[in-house]
Design brief:
Blueprint lengths: L4 E5 L4 H12 L3 E6 L2 H15 L4 E4 H7 L2 E4 L6 H12 L3 E4 L4 E4 L2 E4 L7 H8 L4 E4 L6 H6 L10 E4 L2 H15 L4 E4 L4 H18 L13
Parallel strand pairs: 1-2, 1-4, 2-3, 4-5, 5-8, 9-10
Antiparallel strand pairs: 6-7, 8-9
The protein binds NADP nicotinamide-adenine-dinucleotide phosphate.
Length: 220
Amino acid sequence: MSRYKIAVIGGTGPQGRGLARWLVAGGHDVVIGSRSAERAGATAEEIATRTGADVSGADNESAARTADIVLVVVPWNGHHELITSLADALDGKLVVSCVNPLGFDAQGAFGLGVEEGSAAEQTQKIVPGARVVGAFHHLSAVSLWESEALLDHEDVLVCGDDLEAKEVVKELAGCVTGRPGVDAGALRLAAQLEPLTAVLININRRYKTRSGIAIVGIDR
Ligand SMILES: NC(=O)c1ccc[n+]([C@@H]2O[C@H](COP(=O)([O-])OP(=O)(O)OC[C@H]3O[C@@H](n4cnc5c(N)ncnc54)[C@H](OP(=O)(O)O)[C@@H]3O)[C@@H](O)[C@H]2O)c1
């Protein structure tokens, strides 16, 4: 497997931290990104302690500039502004969007309407020169951080228009689940994958669990 330099924008949050942990364990060179280099450094130290490997931290823009692959793991609120501010640093990169535009009300979680179709497509529109792939939407942050074992009962669904980029992200998914991610189609399918997380959140509340996605019926 290739070794990549991977920036995790929003890596100080539970989802970014959890994904970063497994990418580090998979042998990749990870830099945690944050709006505050100090916060990034603290999370990097926490992951280094957990994994026994070197992890660095930097402000989001510096992290994105030094990486081959940039994971975007931030809330939907503020997404457009953040991607716009990083557009130059993201140009030409493989950008993995893990963002779920969700709303919450008295009935629970639901997918928000997005003008561009999805968060991943919004990123592609703001940064046309990036190779945007959608992935890692459905993994629980708690499982990512707490599990001692690979999440090998779950699948990572991967969508994108650049086949080579999608293959790389399928391979990265293996760091978390122990098996390649599943090709779920073109980037426009992010409009289906992102709000699916709302279904999982409602299942979690109803059954008091951490549900996930597993695909049956395909040869691996
Ligand atoms: N939590 C889960 O279980 C889970 C599961 C699946 C998918 N996801 C998705 O993963 C993404 C991140 O989830 P999370 O729970 O880790 O989110 P979070 O804790 O709310 O945010 C992650 C990080 O994003 C940065 N951030 C927050 N607001 C921002 C803004 N307005 N502009 C720029 N950066 C901002 C913060 O880092 P700094 O303050 O250090 O910059 C924060 O630590 C979301 O889109 C979520 O839907 C989450």
